[in-house]
Amino acid sequence: MSTSFEPSPTESALAPLPTPGLLLDQQRMDRNIARLKQHLRPLGVGLRPHLKTSKSIDIAQRLMATPTGPATVSTLKEAEEFAAAGVKDILYAVGIAPAKLNRAVALRNRGVDLSIVVDNLDQAKAVAAKCRELGVKLPTLIEIDSDGHRAGIQPGDPLLVEIARTLQEGGADPRGIMTHAGGSYDARSEAQLVAAAEQERAAAVQCAEQLRAAGFASPVVSVGSTPTAHFARDLTGVTEVRAGVFVFFDLVMAGIGVCSIDDIAISVLASVIGHQPSKHQILVDAGWMAMSRDRGTANQPVDQYYGLVCDPSGRPYPDLIMRQANQEHGVLEIRPGSSAPLPDLPVGSLVRILPNHACATAAQHTYYNVLSEGRVVAKWPRIASGW
Known about the structure:
Region (Disordered): 1-21
Order of helices and strands: HEHEHEHEHEHEHEHEHEHEEHEEEEHEE
Low-confidence stretches: 1-5
CATH superfamily of the largest domain: Alanine racemase
Distance between the termini: 50 Å
Protein name: DSD1 family PLP-dependent enzyme
Keywords: Lyase
CATH class of the largest domain: Alpha Beta
CATH architecture of the largest domain: Alpha-Beta Barrel
Strand order of the largest sheet: 2-9-8-7-6-5-4-3
Family: Belongs to the DSD1 family.
Radius of gyration: 22 Å
Number of strands: 17
CATH topology of the largest domain: TIM Barrel
Structural class: alpha/beta
Strand content: 15-25%
Helix content: 25-40%
């Protein structure tokens, strides 16, 4: 036995759009942005939004404190594109590869206050050598490891001071430290999220004090991840917070408890193209090329597989997920163990699929179809992909 929802007025508004296509709910996005800014305001720190999630000039202007920044990026290509649009205060928040230093210098020569990141002595020596070679002063943050998640120097390690000294003696500008509490993605309760935020803050401040005790001013203490940004209760000693996926949210963030399903601002519009009745499957024209291969919810209490399926108005069908993803085919099924009926979706029907990881899904598309009150009101381009 099958069931279906009443047609939504939104479906006729979406019908002219090509599928698969990326949809952006402007009201949800604006609400998400306002929520984080309101949370950080009484904590006395600024937001340096990470633009890697949206990769959009239109969205960046809604995120940044001013038209010129501050901003965070994850590629030099992003830095170059946003700089061309007038953004001048940029942190390139990935450890610098020596071969990329000339591009970083070129951006600074264009008047961009670009900061770079190192977390080992070899990188610091390469930065120092480039500064001596070109007679430039590259602002550099030292990445510290606040939770054992990825890159960075352990708090208390003498290497921190050695790197700062190497940078300064080479003519670079050791501006301070940065960290990313990626381990917060493993949190499963409010208490764990609050603890992760405090652990991140304490580690960052400890390292900044370590540098200051060695004679380095370290004016920048930069922390950030979407979970810790939302659950920080005290940011004493921190100068800025970085976060990115909060602008859209996604199923991973909902699974952690940072947002609800109703906060997720992007989805992929897809068309039903067939059925496999004996397998209780519905086929759509959005596979992993539209959704990405990200399976970030796989280790969460609720596995959303490749995405949660909604009707054209954005209302989730009960337990309908994208269970399998081929390059251009998505396979929709009822979640294992659920008794929910498979919706009656004829060929040509439209569905919206919420992503596991907003950054990865948005990266599969070249523009946003912007929705306001269920109507398409704009098409916002994403900056060119690449590095």
